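Table 4 source record.
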Amino acid sequence: MYVESVPNRNSPPAILLRESFRDNGRVRKRTLANLTSCPPHAVDALKAALKGEPTPTASTPLSEQFEISASLPHGHVAAVLGTIKRLGLPRLLDRSDSSERKIALALIASRILFPKSKLATLRLLAPEAILNSQKQDEDAPPRESLDLTPSSTLAEELGIDIATLTLADVYGAMRWLFGKQKRIENGLAKEHLKEGCLALYDLTSTYYEGSTCPLAKFGYSRDKKKGKLQINFGLLCDERGCPISSEVFAGNVSDPNTVSSQATKLRKQFGLNKVVLVGDRGMLTQARIDEDLRHLEGLAWISALNHKSVNALVKEGSIQPELFDDYGVAEIQSPSYPGERLVVCYNPPLAKKRSKKRQEMLTITESKLAEIQKATQREKNPYRGEGRIGRRIQREAGKYKMLKHYELKIKEDGFEFVKDEESITKEAAVDGFYIIRSGKISSEEMESGELVDAYKKLSNVERAFRTFKSVDLRVRPIYHREEEMVRAHIFLCMLAYYVEWHMKEALAPMLFTDEHKEEARAKRKCAAEPIKKSTEAKRKAEEKTDSEGRPLHSFETLLEHLLGVVRNRIEPGIKGIPAFSKETRPDELQRRALELLGLEPIRG
């Protein structure tokens, strides 16, 4: 074969690819292809190749003929965005592919990928956007010389124009998302809450940095941050712990005062005719049940009695602790709780734990009281004053919650204390006992053991709060100044947890998660007995591998491993060949993760 240039009168010559052959002893030639439209450098390269000569670029090493101009982590973005699309979240937010929807989805995904402040998120998402939000200083280096490469393919995948994006657009998208909260929560409730289902509710708090938000108030700090303003927020989940709704309250609002809005939301906003609200003993108090729940038709509840109420039932003879010597469940009735079912549960290990803890606290309390008493009796500068002594006792010994077991006689020049052994004995008699209470639930609808299991499922909400506040999403601390933005921030984190919850469920075979928890629950002899790890979960914990011998991960380290799938921007050093993008080939573990998430494999 050879390349021949054939004159074409007044037109450019025709460039033809031909070959010669013999026909009955005569040399003939035929045309294989017309190369006239090919670039000259491509024709020259073909000529050299047919002659066995070095091509024009062969003298340059192949590695130098291609340049990678950018490499952006892509695997973790593909996993999160793929899950978001699989769950139908974009359509749930809005039917139109608006810029607000794109930015809102980016904020939801970034809360899982790199939970930062909104400014830091914008910097990672689109570095140029930070410059768009600022005035260009005359002495500043030109923008072209700055490294403005995004930290991932998130903006590219969502089609966000990072050249025009500003911080105002981000805050605008948050306000837009908050305006859609009711519609979105209705969609989630329709998907996950059915008639007669359990709805788990609990409240937590987070500390606030600043002083401008009207929601930020001094209140009980669950984060143990003294002197910090607090903001409370509640989470409503289905019985598996999948989040459905969130609501923000002022930092000084107590738990029971948030119940009414949740009951109204379940019955009126979500339109459920029959639903069971599950809340802890500090949430569903007697007053809240009487005032907010009892009169609502179709709304049942499951909670537990506090320690004082349990003692009262023992005193009236409704409970006989001596009848329990092992894990046990017994349903009782009491005139103090008309129309309600009470399920008494006994947990021997819990009894031992409480007894040991009480003894430790009594010892510490007694040492503190003795120390203060000694201070009032010293010869030099004795501690004096009935009020001063009382305040010091509360300050130093009261925090251990054991002063109720001491008789104190405080005077101006000192005090005496005596341990009340009878009080300690009465309290110890109910160690290990807890009582589940329920209303408007018949024994045909739920057995005693099912009521106990339903209350224990509140641990799923507590797990959600741990993820919110420390493990992954890092909702705290809150810096937003406006009430609307604080509410939008909490709702944004809830949607991110919704996505992460589904990802963890799908990725369970690769994580340390106990996939057979329900089987272990069914194997218990008694509902009061704690759920033990399944055999497979124990094997996972010991061997740190899955059923096929592959290493296990936490959710965080698995996302980090997916960072290894990178999208490269390649610019060939050959004329006429345009730049193109190419992802690295996923390894076995990365490919398995994407398969479990139900996503198309990334082709390298």
